[in-house]
């Protein structure tokens, strides 16, 4: 039960699909029973088929995590079911088209939802038996277009706000690089990729030497500028696939895909030399210590980080302004 709550809380598309499935079952099952009881067998079968298809899609989303596929399937099924019902005697499906088209903006991308709206309107408009007059048809088409327009605008704004919140949640506001939360997510992806494909990954912990002295002597504003300059320099001298994160304070983490121990050592040495030559504060050179290690098959994120931290500890105690690469399996940081 805890796992279910966690997935619903952290996976918004899955939560929407699950909610849609629950509402569809709540809405369509009673109608299906009523229509079977009243002799409207075809209507009842359509309602029952919708419930079965929705249950199948929700189950697929929970088993595989492929919410994109499940959402598209649900959008198509609900829209098609409303159209079929609208063309049956009584045109009851017209009332459900509004609900289906609105739900599509939560289930699929807004462009896809708009396309479904256009197709649905085209089908209904061409089927003249649905409406008693052209005025009724025009009123229906205009009302659906207005509802869809408002839904499109709402979906656009909601996506924009989601992206902004996601950025705020994963970007360090001072340096503009990934924060610790983003790092944890990327490390998990790297570990899963390594276990699935065997791809190599290197991890380096970077710590500016004697950074507290900068804050004490020149102030925190100068210290903040050093951090910004440092992040800019590291990003400029690493590959686009390498990911730099601010771990906390003056400590940073660099994730290096495809690096073995030898390559990781060369990268770390070059970064130390580059920072010593180019990073300054008030004409004072600033140096860097690095502890690095490669990902091992049985590593989880804390173990991997701990091994890099142990290497950083050795680099600091060896005199700073240097890199130490840990190639020992099972190494743990000193007490």
Characterise this structure.
There is one protein chain. By secondary structure, this protein is an alpha+beta fold. It is 68% helix and 11% strand. The protein is built from twelve helices and seven strands. The protein has helices at 2-10, 12-37, 41-64, 67-87, 93-107, 110-126, 134-170, 180-197, 211-218, 220-236, 261-278, 301-317, and strands at 201-208, 243-248, 251-257, 280-281, 284-285, 288-294, 323-326. The strands form two sheets. The chain has a five-stranded mixed sheet, sandwiched between helices. α12 (301-317) links the parallel β6 and β7 (323-326). α5 (93-107) runs parallel beside α7 (134-170). The longest helix has 37 residues, at 134-170. It is elongated and about 85 Å long. The relative contact order is 0.07. Residues 329-335 have low confidence and may be disordered.
Which SSEs are present, and which pair or pack?
Blueprint: H1 2-10, H2 12-37, H3 41-64, H4 67-87, H5 93-107, H6 110-126, H7 134-170, H8 180-197, E1 201-208, H9 211-218, H10 220-236, E2 243-248, E3 251-257, H11 261-278, E4 280-281, E5 284-285, E6 288-294, H12 301-317, E7 323-326
Parallel strand pairs: 6-7
Antiparallel strand pairs: 1-3, 1-6, 2-3, 4-5
Helix pairs in contact: 1-2, 2-3, 3-4, 4-5, 4-6, 5-6, 5-7, 6-7, 9-10
């Amino acid at each position: 039960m805890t796992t279910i709550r966690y997935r619903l809380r952290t996976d918004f598309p899955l939560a929407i699909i699950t909610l849609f499935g629950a509402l569809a079952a709540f809405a369509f099952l009673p109608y299906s029973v009523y229509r079977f009881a009243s002799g409207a067998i075809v209507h009842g079968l359509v309602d029952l088929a919708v419930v079965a298809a929705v249950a199948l899609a929700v189950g697929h989303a929970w088993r595989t995590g492929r919410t994109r596929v499940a959402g598209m399937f649900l959008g198509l099924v609900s829209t098609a079911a409303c159209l079929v019902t609208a063309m049956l005697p009584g045109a009851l499906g017209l009332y459900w088209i509004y609900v289906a088209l609105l739900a599509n903006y939560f289930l699929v991308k807004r462009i896809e939802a708009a396309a479904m709206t256009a197709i649905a309107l085209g089908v209904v408009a061409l089927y003249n038996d649905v409406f008693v007059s052209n005025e009724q048809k025009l009123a229906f088409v205009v009302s659906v277009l207005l509802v869809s327009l408002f839904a499109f605008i709402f979906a656009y704004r909601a996506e924009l706000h989601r992206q902004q919140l996601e950025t705020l949640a994963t970007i360090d506001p001072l340096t503009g690089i990934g924060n610790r939360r983003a790092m944890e997510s990327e490390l998990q992806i790297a570990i899963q990729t390594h276990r699935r494909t065997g791809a190599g990954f290197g991890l380096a912990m970077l710590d500016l030497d004697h950074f507290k002295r900068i804050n004490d002597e020149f102030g925190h504003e100068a210290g903040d500028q050093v951090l910004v300059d440092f992040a800019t320099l590291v990003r400029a001298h690493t590959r686009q696939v390498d990911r730099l994160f601010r771990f906390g304070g003056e400590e940073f983490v660099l994730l290096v895909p495809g690096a073995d121990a030898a390559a990781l050592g060369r990268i770390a040495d070059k970064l130390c030399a580059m920072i010593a030559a180019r990073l300054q504060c008030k004409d004072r050179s600033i140096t860097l210590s690095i502890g690095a290690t490669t990902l091992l098959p049985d590593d989880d994120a804390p173990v991997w980080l701990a091994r890099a931290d142990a290497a950083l500890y050795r680099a600091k105690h060896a005199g700073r302004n240097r890199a130490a690469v840990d190639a020992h399996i099972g190494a743990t940081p000193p007490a």
